[in-house]
Amino acid sequence: MSNTAGQVIKCKAAVSWEAGKPLVIEEVEVAPPQANEVRIKILFTSLCHTDVYFWEAKGQKPAFPRIFGHEAAGVVESVGEGVTDLKPGDTVLPVFTGECKECRHCKSEESNMCDLLRINTDRTVMLSDGKSRFIAKGKPIHHFLGTSTFSEYTVAHIGSVAKIDPAAPLDKVCVLSCGISTGLGAAINVAKPKKGSSVAVFGLGAVGLAAAEGARISGAARIIGVDMNPSRFEQAKKFGVTEFVNPKDHDKPVQEVIAEMTDGGVDRSIECTGSIAAMISAFECVHDGWGVAVLVGVPNRDDSFKTHPMNLLNERTLKGTFFGNFKPRTDLPRLVEKYVNKELDLQLEKFITHEVSFSDINKAFDYMLKGEGLRCIIRMGA
Question: Which of 2, 98, 123, 222 is most exposed, with minimal Cβ within 10 Å?
């Protein structure tokens, strides 16, 4: 691949020209990486709800034309000036957030919210020069989350690229660069349920099931799935969920239902919906004295969290998490290594329900819009 270093690469990309319209496979020109950047050949990518949300352009500033995609795995094609941590041929995961390793957050053992590279949905160009690295039909194309993985080649900041074990199956570990790690980390890094404990998971989509998977791996004895869609319950059993609660089936708040089921409340709860009502229920359903609730879902801008202060004074703990508290460059390689070496009983194949060729990428959007499946793998070059 080194013979293309320093040159513009022409390749295929799925370009979103208009909000909500099918993506179009176009020939794009991908510029060489600049200082502190790498150019990556994407081998596998997958579709996340965040891609769909911004493709639909609901509730945020639209930016089109754009190349979406942020869950992926690939190989470094070339590196820009100043890049020493990566070289051509390295196996990598591009990540929607980053780790510069220099700011206070990166130097803290307690945070993964990099000052320089934390998620910025409004940024549509590269940091170094404020320009796009993509051109299609003579027009610059907006970047998405610093990754834009719906392209055979993409350019990313070095701080948003995690070098991983080349032995890892890329068609599976690509899902670790966003939602699955978010839910998994919320359980194993933040909630930290003890063996034999009880956990309630609110929302049984991909992130919630990843949280359930984390609770299962941690040895939780009871994992209570909470969702208003009963069709999700059967699938959730594969992820360790032992009991199910549909709030619609009860004439009292779901936190009261769970408290009655568990003799006063669960030991841990993890909220993965973004619903403010679910967040409040998740907090109020944990046991006093030791219960910990972890919020994962992103609420609406104007939402406010309300609960009686006694719920806190009675020694319940409320926490939030971003990307499961994983530092992208430091922790993701370790997570992949544990998966490859089977040190962690993480069953990624359970999350992958569909697979399509790159030319059929719009089918992945159809599956998600219909609520079918969890993750659809998109094979590049096919």
Answer: 2
Query: Is-contact 69 50, C-beta < 8 A?
Result: no
Catalytic residue numbers? 48-50, 70-71, 100, 103, 106, 114, 118, 178, 375
Structural tokens at position 202: 């609110």
Q: Let me know: does 321 contact 292? Beta carbons within 8 Å.
A: no
Closest by CA to 153, choosing from 168, 143, 138, 163, is 143
Burial call 178-205: b when 16+ CB within 10 Å, e when fewer: bbbbbbbbbbbbbbebeeebbbbbbbbb
Tokens representing 208 are 């919630």
DSSP code per residue over 129-152 = TS--SEEETTEE-B-STTT--SBS
Whether this prediction's pTM lies above 0.85 is answered by yes
The candidate with the shortest Cα–Cα distance to 273, out of 373, 205, 375, 325, is: 205
Per-residue pLDDT of the chain (382 residues; tens, 9 = 90+): 468 999 999 999 999 999 999 999 999 999 999 999 999 999 999 999 999 999 999 767 889 999 999 999 999 999 999 999 999 999 999 999 999 999 999 999 999 999 999 999 999 999 999 999 999 999 999 999 999 999 999 999 999 999 999 999 999 999 999 999 999 999 999 999 999 999 999 999 999 999 999 999 999 999 999 999 999 999 999 999 999 999 999 999 999 999 999 999 999 999 999 999 999 999 999 999 999 999 999 898 889 999 999 999 999 999 999 999 999 999 999 999 999 999 999 999 999 999 999 999 999 999 999 988 899 999 998 6
Give the number of other Cβ atoms within 10 Å of residue 239's Cβ.
24
Return the SS3 of 28.
strand
CB-CB neighbours of 36 under 10 Å: 17
d(CA 259, CA 173): 37
State the Cα–Cα distance between residues 73 and 356, nearest whole angstrom. 16
In whole angstroms, give the CA distance from residue 144 to residue 67: 6
